[in-house]
Predict the structure.
Amino acid sequence: MANSGLFWALLGAALSAGLAGAGSAIGVGVAGRAASGVVTQEPNMFSKVLILQLLPGTQGIYGLLIAFITLTQIGIMGGDPNISLVKGLLYFAACLPMAIGGLISGIAQGKCSVSAIGLVAKRPEQFGKAMIFPAMVETYAILALLISILSIFGIVNVPI
């Protein structure tokens, strides 16, 4: 049980990067299939549909950011990685909003991007409006990112 705190903190960091990355991969993948179909018919639409396809990729970046911040805070990336079980569980819990929020919002944003790509395929002049729909899903990924960041930096002051 000597490094059980470190185990839980590392698990939280891994889940944050892994689950948020998986959500992004799924979201970018489904949007990419839709974008490919549009470009097959209209090659000049490539840049517009590419932007819409890339939107779900941000969750993976956010998850990676939370993982890096956690690894830095627990001493893995320089320092003493000896943390208590309680602090390890706190770091684990702090990573969960980004892990779960990133997974779900990445997939949801991908599905929304598919619809936005369909809109742009039929009405290219509506690109600006089409971007708003998947961008609304991004709001929840950003909220998950913020709560994870605030939670991680709040753990430093916990006297355990």
In short: The longest helix spans residues 4-41. The helical segments are 4-41, 46-54, 58-73, 85-122, 127-155. The chain has five helices and no strands. The CA atoms of residues 72 and 79 lie 8 Å apart.
